[in-house]
């Protein structure tokens, strides 16, 4: 096999295959990272398969990146060779708009640069992600990773972690709150860990009784089977916050019914039409909200929190050569709870 | 004609007709009010026609009541004979739950008593509303009406007014904000007046170009025709708050697109399924919320604000004998913007 440095899909129905990419020369503010691990996010599959209609080929996915700094630009202040670092879903933004100034680069009004499939301002074309040997990233978008954690299990924190952490923090989840997490997958299992670590009475809300035991192991205080109408009725109007990780359109009304007056349910996965009844919001002054990943500052806060509380994802390791099987298993929800690619395997 | 004291519908397809009702003897904390005016709310029609499936007949509608105190119970402290007062959508609540203690009796966890079609705790059966000569109400649910306003045009403030005032205040609409009001009817015309009086740059959002002139007369700084895609695009992501008064299920996505990051659209009319795309909420951390009328304390604040700023509804007066025609015209949106019944006409 040719000496490749990445894996890519060349069209929407192609398997990922060995591929060679160019990374830019490092600029004054750039950090070059040798990638150790990269998580497999469901959105990698959506983009490879062009489910959102905006994919550019070849697609090199991967935005849950962990590695070591191997080179820094002359103006880089916070990183040096050998540092353990992470890169998430973004590698750049304008730094000038209100959202960037508010440390919420994910909502950059001029459009943030996605880690892959974003517009590459340096080389032209589009950006390539972490299913690769190395990456060059502007310092501002590099995260410090605590050294005390199981490094490979940190990778999914860069997307699944921050996506669930950000709304829990935005809505001020705290000790004594009753918090629901809907859906137990890559996002949901992190939602349970975080809500529990923040001191909330955490309720896993799922359609699958089979997930109860695992939810409790992850930190859930209770499991609510959403198909059980009697159980749902008992919990009506009692939740301070619900994090909804369901990745597709669905009927949100039963969950809205669980909220207290003035409480919020935040969608982090469903980027489709969802069913919602106006009366359910009006009768208790409730809110249906959304949240997209998180800003760089809060991503660092999350990583620091994880370091202090010894929190990582539950993962299954694979070699990059097994990525196509892994995609199929993710689609079938057959993973607890995140695949992580050992990126050194690319040399095999 | 027999000497009647109210008008009622006896079944869901019956016209309103003269009817005689009993009011309770006043208790220690009761206020008896001779009704001068009563507004005609769209929900009067829904309840008369049993559109919500919970009507109890005979239905005596009316929850936008203005009148003079004619008698007070021995423990009444804040009212005396001759006072100009109002009664809105509620006449009682438990006073003990968290919502009642938070001055949000409309969300009473034990169920507030609606002014009509509510459970009558005193006489049994159900409550009768303001399409009548007089009403007996617990002091706590009686509002003081400023004497300097056009009294008959104050009536709609008790429902249409507080329904729009409450979310504008909850979401802290203030000078300099850009606020949209969707729909120009009984609620919407009050929304425009209030948003403007609170100092916001107020934009009337309507499907009907024919409403532009009137919207500006009511206080709108701009009119945005929601069917005009170019106009809608220009306003994308620029609104701090949107008050949505559309009374039926509809596609909320175009309006959500108008919101800034972290901004909210509150539904006050649509108690049906509405269309909403999860991605529209997620991409800008936006919120779809609901709001139901308002608490007694904030209703009093609204009336006081109206007294200070000389704000009333735009009304068309009718005699009670014309109520059935008025209902038909409300259904056709053929009223600018609220019918008010001269209740003295019942003696004609």
From TrEMBL, chains A, B:
Enoyl reductase (ER) domain mapped to chain residues: 11-341
Name recorded for this polypeptide: Uncharacterized zinc-type alcohol dehydrogenase-like protein
Species annotation: Christiangramia echinicola
Alphabetized UniProt keyword annotations: Metal-binding, Oxidoreductase, Zinc
One Pfam family here: ADH_N
Keyword Zinc: yes
Cofactor field: Zn(2+)
SUPFAM superfamilies from the UniProt entry: GroES-like (SSF50129), NAD(P)-binding Rossmann-fold domains (SSF51735)
Family assignment from sequence similarity: Belongs to the zinc-containing alcohol dehydrogenase family.
InterPro entries: ADH-like_C, ADH-like_N, ADH_Zn_CS, CAD-like, D-isomer_DH_CS1, ER, GroES-like_sf, NAD(P)-bd_dom_sf
Alphabetized PANTHER family for the sequence: ALDEHYDE REDUCTASE (PTHR42683)
Molecular functions (GO terms): alcohol dehydrogenase (NADP+) activity; zinc ion binding
């Amino acid at each position: 096999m040719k000496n490749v440095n990445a894996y890519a899909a060349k069209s929407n129905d192609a398997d990922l295959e060995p591929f060679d990419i160019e990374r830019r020369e490092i600029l004054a503010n750039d950090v070059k990272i040798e990638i150790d691990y990269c998580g497999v996010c469901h959105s990698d599959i959506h983009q490879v398969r062009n489910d959102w209609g905006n994919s550019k080929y070849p697609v090199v996915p991967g935005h849950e990146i962990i590695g070591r700094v191997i080179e820094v630009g002359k103006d880089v202040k916070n990183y040096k060779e050998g540092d353990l670092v992470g890169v998430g879903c973004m590698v750049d933004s304008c730094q000038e708009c209100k959202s960037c100034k508010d440390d919420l680069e994910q909502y950059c009004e001029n459009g943030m640069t996605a880690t892959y499939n974003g517009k590459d301002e340096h080389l032209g074309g589009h950006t390539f992600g972490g299913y690769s040997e190395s990456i060059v990233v502007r310092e501002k978008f590099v995260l410090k990773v605590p050294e005390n954690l199981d490094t490979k299990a940190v990778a999914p924190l860069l997307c699944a972690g921050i996506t669930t952490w950000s709304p829990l923090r935005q809505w001020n989840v705290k000790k004594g709150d009753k918090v629901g997490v809907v859906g137990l997958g890559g996002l949901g299992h992190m939602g349970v860990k975080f809500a529990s670590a923040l001191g909330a009475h955490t309720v896993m809300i799922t359609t699958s009784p089979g997930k109860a035991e695992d939810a409790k192991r992850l930190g859930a205080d209770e499991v609510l089977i959403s198909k059980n109408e009697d159980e749902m009725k008992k919990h009506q109007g009692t939740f301070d916050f619900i994090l909804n990780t369901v990745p597709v359109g669905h009927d949100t009304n039963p969950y809205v019914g669980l909220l207290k007056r003035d409480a919020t349910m935040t969608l982090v996965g469903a980027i489709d039409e969802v069913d919602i009844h106006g009366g359910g919001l009006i009768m208790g002054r409730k809110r249906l909200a959304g949240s997209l990943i998180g800003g760089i500052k809060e991503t660092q806060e999350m990583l620091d929190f994880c370091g202090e509380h010894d929190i990582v994802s539950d993962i299954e390791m694979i070699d990059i050569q097994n990525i196509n099987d892994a995609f199929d298993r993710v689609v079938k929800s057959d993973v607890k709870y995140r695949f992580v690619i050992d990126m050194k395997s690319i040399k095999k």
